From TrEMBL:
<protein>
    <submittedName>
        <fullName>Uncharacterized protein YhfF</fullName>
    </submittedName>
</protein>
<feature type="domain" description="ASCH">
    <location>
        <begin position="24"/>
        <end position="145"/>
    </location>
</feature>
<dbReference type="InterPro" id="IPR007374">
    <property type="entry name" value="ASCH_domain"/>
</dbReference>
<dbReference type="Pfam" id="PF04266">
    <property type="entry name" value="ASCH"/>
</dbReference>
<dbReference type="InterPro" id="IPR009326">
    <property type="entry name" value="DUF984"/>
</dbReference>
<dbReference type="InterPro" id="IPR015947">
    <property type="entry name" value="PUA-like_sf"/>
</dbReference>
Length: 151
């Protein structure tokens, strides 16, 4: 669905190391995906996190510095091309106020209120318990191209 758009973006941005687009979406509802995509476009969300264990479970590729992705809204429309600029592996219990703000959640208290139940639920789906020692793959990214519906 996004292949032709990706080919155009590859040419415009001189991306030759990534033949297929990574698709990046945030949240677990259409409304949340729209809201979080808007935060990215506004520069208020420059990071994200995910459970490291789920990468193994899903046999998914872990994002690396230099990777590009198409950021999708709640309708699965591409709204931007983002580039991964930094990654770390951190314990859930080590997430700090700065990262919470960079994830667009405003404060650590708000980040915890959102992510603790979400990650607990995600782990329960694969029969794993939650603890503060659970490892997160933390990703920082930058918008390198805004996309419109006409692109």
């Amino acid at each position: 669905m996004h292949e032709k758009l990706w080919q155009t973006c590859q040419k415009e941005l001189n991306i030759s190391n990534q033949p297929t687009p990574e698709l990046m979406t945030f949240g677990n509802t259409k409304e949340m995906a729209d809201e979080l995509a808007e935060l990215v476009l506004a520069g208020e969300k420059i990071a994200t996190s995910s459970l490291l264990e789920l990468y193994d479970y899903r046999e998914a590729k872990i994002s690396e510095v230099g990777d590009y992705a198409l950021l999708l809204n709640g309708d699965s429309d591409a709204v931007a091309v983002v580039k991964v600029v930094r990654t770390t592996i951190q314990r859930f219990g080590d997430i700090d106020e700065q990262f919470a703000k960079e994830e667009g959640d405003g404060s650590l208290a708000n980040w915890l209120a959102i992510h603790l139940p979400y990650y607990t639920q995600q782990l329960a789906r694969i029969d794993q318990p939650f603890s503060n020692d659970v490892l997160l793959h933390c990703i920082w990214f930058e918008v390198v191209k805004l996309l419109s519906n006409e692109t």
